[in-house]
Amino acid sequence: MANIRDLLHDDLVIEELAATEKAGVLAEFAALLKLQGKIRDDQELFRILMQREALGSTGIGDGIAIPHGKMTMIPETIIAFGRSTAGIDFQSLDRKPVHLLFLLVAPADRPGDHLKTLARVSRILRNPFFRENLRAASGRGALMRLIREEDGRYPNTL
User: Fold this and answer.
1) What is the pTM of this model?
2) Which pLDDT tens digit goes with each residue over 74-128?
3) How wide is the angle at C-alpha 24 spanned by C-alphas 147 and 112, nearest 5°?
């Protein structure tokens, strides 16, 4: 299995999300994954993500959300990253706006991959210095560098 830095590619980073509300953000991510050839059906992914949100917000606090779901017909886990300078009401646990979002989509037939990837993303986001650097970074390259560096600080557990 791979690290975050092996699953997150430059073309799956949104430096500034256009959407200003939760459903729009999830649709924006789904459209990006379809555009990049990672999924076939963006409407299906959107439905999966919204169903997961109906169970409880994936906004975990500290300006972070990790929307996630499982999908059939994808060969490997997909990670995308998006940032919102203004912040998005994601109905987070701490009721604060979300600025940093990691989207995870795992193959439906590999639930272990889903949980391990979710745990790894959660781990790197515990570092407040890392979160602040992500919020302040300028450009997709800087965002990717920060994510790769932070991911590299931890043993390969995926």
Assistant:
1) 0.93
2) 999 999 999 999 999 999 989 999 999 999 999 999 877 878 888 889 999 999 9
3) 50
| Chain position carrying tokens 């779901």 | 69
CATH assignment of 4-152, among 3.40.930.10, 3.40.50.720, 3.30.70.1130, 3.30.465.60: 3.40.930.10
Residues with active-site annotation: 68
Please state at what angle helix 140-152 crosses helix 128-136, rounded to 10 degrees: 170
Q: Which residue has the tokens 């450009």?
A: 139
Which of 137, 135, 123, 54 shows the shortest CA–CA distance to 96? Answer: 135
- Within a 10 A sphere around the Cβ of 141, how many other Cβ atoms? 12
